[in-house]
Amino acid sequence: MTRFVCRDCGLDFDVNVPRWRCDCGGLLDLDFTPHLDPDRLAGRPATLWRYREALPVPDGAELTLGEGFTPMLPVEIGGREVLVKQEQLFPTGSYKDRGAAVMMAMAAHIGVDRVVEDSSGNAGCAVSAFAAKAGIRCRIFVPADNSPGKLGQIELYGADLVPVPGSREDTASACMAAASDCYYASHVYNPYFFHGTKTFAYEVAEQLGWKAPDAVVLPAGNGTLLLGAHIGFTELLGLGLIDRMPKLVAVQSANCAPLCAAFEAGAREVSQVATAPTLAEGIAIGLPMRGEQMLEAVRETGGTCLAVSEEAVLAAFRDMGRKGFCIEPTSAAVVAGAAEYVRTADADEVVVTVFTGHGLKVGDKLHKLAGGV
Amino acid sequence: MTRFVCRDCGLDFDVNVPRWRCDCGGLLDLDFTPHLDPDRLAGRPATLWRYREALPVPDGAELTLGEGFTPMLPVEIGGREVLVKQEQLFPTGSYKDRGAAVMMAMAAHIGVDRVVEDSSGNAGCAVSAFAAKAGIRCRIFVPADNSPGKLGQIELYGADLVPVPGSREDTASACMAAASDCYYASHVYNPYFFHGTKTFAYEVAEQLGWKAPDAVVLPAGNGTLLLGAHIGFTELLGLGLIDRMPKLVAVQSANCAPLCAAFEAGAREVSQVATAPTLAEGIAIGLPMRGEQMLEAVRETGGTCLAVSEEAVLAAFRDMGRKGFCIEPTSAAVVAGAAEYVRTADADEVVVTVFTGHGLKVGDKLHKLAGGV
């Protein structure tokens, strides 16, 4: 029986009753037992729902916009071949659809009719789209100084925007306050979101013929993909579908690298660090709520944390473009991290990385970033 | 043996020698015999290259960015269920990748190292991306008054932009002049492009369990998808994989509807008509070069031509957004056409239509179109 479990005090809760943290304030995980028989996958649609026995959503509650089973293509990065999951090809333009599909399917299943979320970026888009698909009313809290152009996609999906004056933290606080009587469809707190992003690992393993790669290079902002991948590969190992864990390599912008700082310092927890603006806006998180968990995932798998410069991000962005791939700058940071990783990796390592979001996400700024005149 | 064949004089030419029209000036088709054994498809990647025996490109010459086999989802349109191919999920954000992938694969195969094309829209993006992937140098001719923001994606793919003063026709003329000593990667003239877009029909048939739908509602600008679908369904019928042709329904903006005018007048050829600006920019073609062929495809299949108003386009755009789909306004015109078609269709008809391009294509205009304030 699937239960919410508090990471701090171990208390557990019914998953059919909306809840986003423990009474003690601790973060929630899911106690869930996946099943999967690869022989039953043939003929199933090429979406993440092909792994339905491994998803904590009852049969028949699936919610889909056609998301998942993204292509994994060989791309030359850092002078050698790296396998890149094309997560920019999700319906809303980013891998966040993995988390939103599963989370909103469960929300709809337990009868939720209104949700709140705080994200003006890819998570906000994904939650809005799947809320629209489910017929669930959605309010997205955003900093009041957000540029209107950035919000067009969320508006199109019919979500109500709630501008909040002040800092990004003020926006989060306002959303949490609203979450006291409304389902909090959070890409940070809600463990169903991570049980959506874990399908990334299932797809990688299936696309490699049920093998684990040697290393997986992933973005590290709030850790939605890093932690999802960790859950997924751990489950696959438990199911006997892979025979070892891949190293998880976390990439941050050097201008906002709290995880890297904690990793290097040998710290157990992540602390706030000084930050500067970065092209990789999507992973510019000064203090990730699940930082401790992210450090554990990296260390436990023998991975590492890498910080990349603004110059490397822009160069990777343009290099991928010249190879035919239109990706968002945040995604280019991960590519730059992969290039850095393979510089010292064994030549025979199978390295997987990810294009996280579509370049069209940056709107009219694409022209300038592309080097246009 | 595959050959170019002139539609006007019947002269045929070697496909391994670059050529974009007949010596007589006529348009070229391909004389090509497809093969396909559906039993051999299981386990092949979910891209358009799964139909490789039906594609006029030699084995081993495939060129891929992971394109094709887009999901087909039921969507409520015009008060009933219509099946919608999610072609906005292609790598460059539109179905034009079908044509560009096949055309550029063939170009690379015959040793082409430079191409030209005239399109500042989705075709230009698709050709640029696959040229980048193939390592082929690409020049895109665009009207000099194009807004720079619109060209960012093409620039990112590394194509050289050639601004041409004057009208859209002046741009085409300049490109044709350049094509005298350079491969013309045209989405209008090059028949390989249409043998890429034909894979739309193969996917629809496979996704329906090797059956034809009753009607397919498609955009009609230059007819790249309409004619591709016609080739595809005709081939499938010849292969015995479907047992009848679906009706092909062509949709235009009422503000630019030369095909509709010719269809209603019973004319054999399409003539220039008066036009006005439209939200459906991607199908705003005043005089389609393959108009006669488009009329034949519609008439031969018992289809029809529909013109949709600007109000219907905007309403369909927003309606799809509220259902979780971010599509470009041109695509919304097709949805409006599908809504119009099903109003008088039999209740048991299986109707297929298409989201042609991603809403993120319109950049910062998305905010205003979405109804944002």
TrEMBL record, chains A, B:
Protein origin, superkingdom: Bacteria
Keyword Lyase appears in the UniProt entry: yes
UniProt-listed Pfam families: PALP
Record keywords: Lyase, Pyridoxal phosphate
Domain Tryptophan synthase beta chain-like PALP: 64-357
One record GO biological process: L-serine catabolic process
Cofactor dependence: pyridoxal 5'-phosphate
A molecular function GO annotation: pyridoxal phosphate binding
Listed SUPFAM superfamilies: Tryptophan synthase beta subunit-like PLP-dependent enzymes (SSF53686)
InterPro entries according to UniProt: Ser/Thr_Dehydratase, Ser/Thr_deHydtase_PyrdxlP-BS, TrpB-like_PALP, TrpB-like_PALP_sf
PANTHER family for the chain: L-THREONINE DEHYDRATASE CATABOLIC TDCB (PTHR48078:SF6), THREONINE DEHYDRATASE, MITOCHONDRIAL-RELATED (PTHR48078)
Protein name: Threonine synthase
Organism: Pseudodesulfovibrio indicus
